User: Which sequence fits this backbone?
């Protein structure tokens, strides 16, 4: 579950730029609503998947409750807009802050208690549940009925007339997240996270403040998730406790990273493309509810069993050996 | 440089470390030896902050660091290695050492240069690209050492760095430890391999059942009856007449 | 709030808690022996409950009679699952097994969704509406029967673990795997049996739950958290802990609903889980993790 930080050949800039170019061209080549929506969903999952990846893959702190940060972002931005009259664009920083705060709280409380591995995963699940139950029970969030954002197209309302407006915005987020992951691969912070992931005691013996770094990475991850939540709310114009605090989102974030390749820069994108494709294809070809997730669950089991580094291993085997050149 | 006074650590009913005192002067190589289960690693763990001692104080460069968090102690210049090596398994040798180097350098390029230099000093330069988990035992021991060295420590606590090495590897490692000392690093080592202890250390402490039972120059310690008894059992001193063994 | 309402809530909580105990016993057995956190525990219960549902609606078999079918069937399922899937990864990283059981739970839940859609189903039997007076409250007969049978089964399981040769083998492997191997125990077989037993308890719990609850493809989520909370509260690997934990969680759910309302009341369980993990991760009776 890792990318030999510097040992594998670093992704060449040419690749980054070509992928970006392809992504920018995509909505012009495939302008239909269906395809643009596919693009939006793929990039959306790539973005929140990367958010999970940063704390779960790079730092090795597997979480089952990332949806907590996502949902809190969705609700905070929507509540700001609907109950307090803020311009929807303020929702983005508001959501990021909310996600960061909740993540910070969860991190401080869990890591100080020494929780790691599976126990940490389970407690994050419980935190997500708590938030879901609360949002289901209080008036300000509309309780179980959720919240509806009235359709008012226009950039000022954070609603784009052309779906491609959403596309380019989420592309910006996703690209930034890829840049962030690349930075992690070559920075001191990223090296420390990898050390923590591999061996906490050894990391401490080398002067790394493990607790502090873990908190930092979770806060960063939480902020990103929060932004994802805000985007989601604006794109779908309806949120409720099950949608934005349900376990399914946590699982999806985890899934795209683990299947694509946790701890790698492009793993989440690969996983997201796969998720969005399977999702759309199954929806179009059959009426069977849940088929895409069946495929997903099966893939997860197969990947963990046979390709534990994720699908990205298929790309790497062709290239250099793990070890690479220096 | 290091002053440990009356250190004790109790686990349940067991006194793993019992009122042990030890001191290490700057620039020296000091060894901590003793039969298995004597409490040596626990002692290290307490000194380096991985366990909270139940009694006693630890002073490093005049500062009281008793019970300080391990990463802070490391930042103060005391770095330990582990008896069972703890490499960052999936990272390359270079990346492993860079984690240590990042203690001193914030920038990627500087850390990398420093790490490469350290690797050369301990003879790991050809292995830089290899994943840590693919190394042999000897390689891992050396990596553990290199990683600690990359933090530019003042005092290195080496826990059985010779364990699992074959005779020629031991000779090489002894040379490396000497080189490290010559570079200005003070060394405190736990060791079972007597050949290494005798050729490296200037001062030896002997731990048995958690207590320091002898201390002094290598030749004196090794012929000390109490030490012989600790290793070989009651009455052994009489049989062996206080002779040396390697 | 007068005493009779509180007592009624307490009674209902205990009755449901008894069944949680049974579910948790399976989970704690699996953890205690295999050191696996079985995330699929909830979805496997759901599968068993659908089994009971169809045994009644298609074959007209009373759910309590189904015990004789479901328990062995789930045991076999568990044994096969272990041999075919879980066993290969039980010695790997902790988190990998968690992920595999997560994958399994996703598979099961969504296969169920594919076949059964999202609706909840309940069953009724002849005596569904028979009420028994218990103190200040009227309790449906099935609830009482289920509680009694659950407690009996927990005792039976406990007896099996303590008094039979198989149980001894299980305890040996749980305590010291290498040693058990050295004295000739087939550790892998013990693992498979333990996993099978863990699922067998789910088979039993399903029979006991169907008359008083409902089933839908997604209830796995609910039960997973409940089961984990009971096990963590009681202490991983402790049966006494599972019993006490189950009763406490049942009570919490009941009182939570009473004082905080239907929706917010569910929060009690998650909060217990969080607090135990933070403050006393070994639970009431568990060994230090």
Assistant:
């Amino acid at each position: 579950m890792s990318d030999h930080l510097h040992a594998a050949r670093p992704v060449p800039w040419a690749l980054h730029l070509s992928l970006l170019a392809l992504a920018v061209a995509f909505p012009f080549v495939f302008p239909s609503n269906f395809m643009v929506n596919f693009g939006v969903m793929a990039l959306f999952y790539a973005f929140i998947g990367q958010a999970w990846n940063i704390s779960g893959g790079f730092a090795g702190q597997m979480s089952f409750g990332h949806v907590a940060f996502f949902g809190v972002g969705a609700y905070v931005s929507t509540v700001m807009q609907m109950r307090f009259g803020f311009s929807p664009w303020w929702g983005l920083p508001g959501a990021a802050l909310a996600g960061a705060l909740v993540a910070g709280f969860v991190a401080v409380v869990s890591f100080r208690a020494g929780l790691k591995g599976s126990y940490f995963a389970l407690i994050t699940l419980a935190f997500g549940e708590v938030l879901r139950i609360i949002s289901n029970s209080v008036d300000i969030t509309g309780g179980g009925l959720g919240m509806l954002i009235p359709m008012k197209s226009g950039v000022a309302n954070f609603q784009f007339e052309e779906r491609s407006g959403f596309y380019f915005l989420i592309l910006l987020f996703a690209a930034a997240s890829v840049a962030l992951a690349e930075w992690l691969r070559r920075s001191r912070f990223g090296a420390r996270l990898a050390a923590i992931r591999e061996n906490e005691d050894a990391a401490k013996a080398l002067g790394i403040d493990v607790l502090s770094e873990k908190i930092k990475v979770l806060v960063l991850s939480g902020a990103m998730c929060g932004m994802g939540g805000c985007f989601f709310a604006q794109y779908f114009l309806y949120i409720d406790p099950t949608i934005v605090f349900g376990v399914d989102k946590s699982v999806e974030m985890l899934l795209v990273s683990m299947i694509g390749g946790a701890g790698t820069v492009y793993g989440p994108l690969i996983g997201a493309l796969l998720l969005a494709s399977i999702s759309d294809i199954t929806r179009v070809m059959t009426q069977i509810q849940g088929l895409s997730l069946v495929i997903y669950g099966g893939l997860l089991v197969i990947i963990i069993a046979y390709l534990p580094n994720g699908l990205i291993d298929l790309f790497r085997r062709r290239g250099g050996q793990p070890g690479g050149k220096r | 440089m290091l002053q440990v006074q009356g250190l004790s650590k109790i686990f349940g009913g067991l006194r793993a470390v019992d009122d042990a005192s030890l001191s290490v002067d700057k620039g020296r190589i000091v060894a901590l030896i003793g039969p298995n289960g004597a409490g040596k690693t626990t002692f290290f763990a307490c000194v380096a902050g991985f366990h909270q001692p139940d009694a006693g104080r630890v002073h490093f460069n005049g500062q009281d660091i008793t019970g300080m968090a391990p990463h802070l102690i490391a930042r103060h210049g005391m770095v330990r290695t582990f008896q069972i090596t703890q490499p960052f398994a999936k990272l390359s040798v270079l990346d492993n050492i860079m984690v240590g180097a990042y203690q001193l350098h914030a920038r990627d390029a500087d850390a990398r240069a420093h790490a490469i230099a350290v690797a050369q000093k301990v003879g790991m330069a050809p292995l830089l690209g290899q994943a840590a988990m693919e190394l042999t035992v000897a390689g891992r021991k050396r990596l553990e050492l290199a990683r600690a060295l990359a933090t530019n420590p003042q005092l290195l606590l080496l826990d059985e760095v010779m364990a699992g090495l074959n005779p020629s590897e031991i000779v090489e490692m002894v040379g490396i430890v000497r080189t490290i000392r010559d570079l200005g690093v003070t060394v405190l080592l736990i060791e079972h391999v007597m050949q290494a202890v005798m050729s490296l250390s200037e001062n030896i402490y002997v731990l048995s059942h958690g207590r320091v039972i002898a201390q002094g120059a290598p030749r004196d310690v090794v012929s000390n009856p109490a030490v012989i008894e600790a290793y070989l059992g009651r009455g052994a001193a009489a049989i062996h007449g206080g002779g040396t063994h390697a | 709030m007068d005493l009779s309402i509180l007592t009624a809530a307490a009674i209902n909580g205990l009755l449901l808690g008894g069944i949680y105990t049974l579910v948790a016993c399976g989970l704690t057995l699996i953890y205690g022996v295999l050191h696996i956190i079985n995330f699929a525990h909830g979805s496997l219960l759901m599968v068993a409950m659908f089994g009971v549902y169809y045994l009644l609606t298609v074959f007209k078999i009373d759910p309590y009679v189904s015990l004789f079918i479901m328990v062995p069937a789930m045991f076999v399922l568990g044994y096969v699952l272990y041999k075919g899937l879980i066993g290969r990864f039980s010695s790997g990283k902790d988190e990998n097994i968690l992920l595999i059981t997560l994958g399994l739970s996703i598979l099961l839940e969504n296969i169920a969704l594919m076949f059964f859609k999202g609706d909840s189903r309940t069953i009724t039997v002849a005596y569904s509406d028979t009420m028994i007076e218990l103190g200040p409250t009227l309790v449906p007969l099935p609830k009482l029967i289920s509680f009694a049978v659950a407690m009996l089964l927990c005792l039976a399981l406990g007896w099996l673990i303590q008094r039979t040769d198989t149980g001894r083998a299980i305890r040996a492997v749980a305590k010291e795997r290498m040693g058990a191997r050295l004295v000739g125990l087939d550790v892998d077989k013990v693992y498979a049996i333990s996993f099978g037993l863990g699922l067998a308890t789910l088979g039993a719990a399903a029979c006991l739950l169907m008359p008083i609850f409902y089933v839908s493809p997604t209830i796995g989520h609910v039960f997973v958290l409940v089961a984990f909370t009971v096990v963590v509260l009681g202490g991983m690997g402790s049966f006494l802990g599972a019993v006490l934990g189950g009763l406490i969680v049942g009570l919490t759910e009941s009182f939570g609903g009473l004082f905080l309302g239907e929706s917010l009341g569910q929060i009690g369980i998650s909060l217990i889980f969080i607090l135990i993990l933070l403050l006393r991760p070994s639970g009431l009776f568990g060994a230090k993790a």
User: Anything to note?
Assistant: The beta strands of chain B are 2-11, 14-24, 29-33, 55-60, 63-64, 78-80, 155-159, 186-190, 203-208, 211-216.
